[in-house]
Amino acid sequence: MAYTEFYVQTTGSNLNAGSTTANAASLTYASGNWVAATGVFTVASGNPTSDGVAVGDFASVYADGATATAFVGRVTARDATTITVSLTAVSGTPPADGTGNRTLKIGGAWAGPSGAVIFPFGFVVGTMTNAAGDPTRVNVKNGVTYSYSSALTSPNLGALTWQGYTSTPGDGGRAVFDVSTNAITGMTIAGSRNAVIDFEFTSSASSGTQPGINASGDALIFRNKVTGFRGAGIAASALAVIGENEISGCNTANTTNIGGITLSSGSHVTILRNYIHDNTGSNASGIVTSPTADATAQIIGNVIKSNGRFGIFLQNRSGVYVIIGNDFYNNTLDHIRTSTSTNGSLVYMENNNFIAGAAWGMLRSDAFTDHLFYLTNNGFGSGTAANSSGTTSGIPTVLDSVQYPADEMPWVSPATGDFRIKLAQARNAGRGTFLGLTNAAGYPDIGAVQSKKTRASGAVSA
Fold it and tell me: Are residues 189 and 336 part of one domain?
């Protein structure tokens, strides 16, 4: 997939256009004239045509003496004396008209957030695209720590991706963002269709209850690491896919009903293959849902380990939850707990492991009859690997549970984070059948970390 690419590195300048990886702009025209209504910049010296300005380049235009640009747009035309900048394929607001006191830069990387400056967060929008209309991506180079004292934001205009990288955009390198002792949110996603990928957010604040990532708009939150925040690691209140993140050491304020992932009222979320662990406060759960409104959550393939309260705390009234293929280990109370509610919830669970919890595998804590629970093919420990209170309580439909041998863990070494399946009773034992389809049965492992299937030479594998 092609993107309209922009770049952040600490050696760049926030006066640049952000569209190349060079520290400096490729061309700078100072002391020129600018007409905001037409987007026409007239140079004081030089020749844009022979200098190499090209249609499709991105230009930054600002008042002389500025410390960060307030306007970047795509070049739509140029001749020997003028450069015309789009007024639609842009971020920011065109500067006021000026004569002999406006500067235009072509290309160059941005320096990014530092201290009270959060640029280009809060500035870039998804409408700043190339002529092909490829979606906008801002690539933040790692190797240094970006420390700042005001929360980063992503506004609500168009599809936009923020992504860390090491040497090539999309290579998986994480950029480190540190709010240090500042009582602020690591990043707020206010816009719709925003993606936050390959970042590490850290905090050592001693006050406040802010989360690491706050998704109040629709978001894809993927491959991030969040640690040390006094609120949730990730908080979501809209549509979101939260996948392959590591969330640990959060809710250090020990606020009641805050989790590594916390879902607010009205959220509709897929939580996929996250490692949610060691959020250790007595009120800190792995995942917590809001008690105040309907919600849906698909919770699939996560490892939820050693959290200070519950693995998952389902509070939503009239909630719909599909919980498949997760590993629950060593959570301080119930691995899954439902709260008292006046309205019904629907909970479907299959192929999960519930091992060595300090209370129940799953506890339904209310007496209402309008909830619907359906649990099938989940694995439970026994002996020293059992959940202290038992497998389930208050759940009317529990089918085909798998009981592992006494004192045996299904995984290689959960205490050190190795959740590869080792027990034969868990391998290829997950539910995966299709009613009415011949030869369409699947055989997943029970749990989150699927083993690699092997086949004999010449054999055909299903």
Answer: yes
- Assess whether 277 and 411 both reside in one domain: yes
The domain boundary, picked from 79, 106, 133, lies at 106
Asked, for residue 111, whether it belongs to a domain, the answer is: no
Per-residue pLDDT tens for 273-301?
999 999 999 999 999 987 766 778 999 99
Q: Decide which of 106, 137, 156 is a domain's last residue.
A: 106
Domain CATH code at residue 223 = 2.160.20.10
Q: What is the dihedral of CA 209, 213, 214, 219, to 10 degrees?
A: -170
49: domain CATH number is: 2.40.30
| HSE (side-chain half, CA atoms, 13 Å) at 40 | 8
Strand-pair category, 379-382 with 353-355: parallel
Per-residue pLDDT tens for 190-218? 888 899 999 999 999 999 999 999 999 89
- Where helices occur in 2-107 by DSSP H, the ranges are 48-51
Q: How far is CA 133 from the centre of its chain?
A: 24
Distance between CA atoms of residues 121 and 20, nearest Å? 17
User: Is the previous residue joined to 120 through a cis bond, with omega within 30 degrees of 0?
Assistant: yes
- State the chain's mean pLDDT as an integer: 93
Task: Note down the domain range covering 81.
Answer: 4-106
- Do residues 73 and 61 lie in contact, with contact meaning Cβ atoms separated by under 8 Å? yes
Question: What is the distance between the alpha carbons of residues 289 and 239, in angstroms, rounded to a whole number?
Answer: 14
pLDDT at 317 over 90: no
Whether residue 186 lies inside any domain: the answer is: yes
Of the candidates 391, 389, 395, the one whose C-alpha atom is nearest the C-alpha of residue 365 is 395
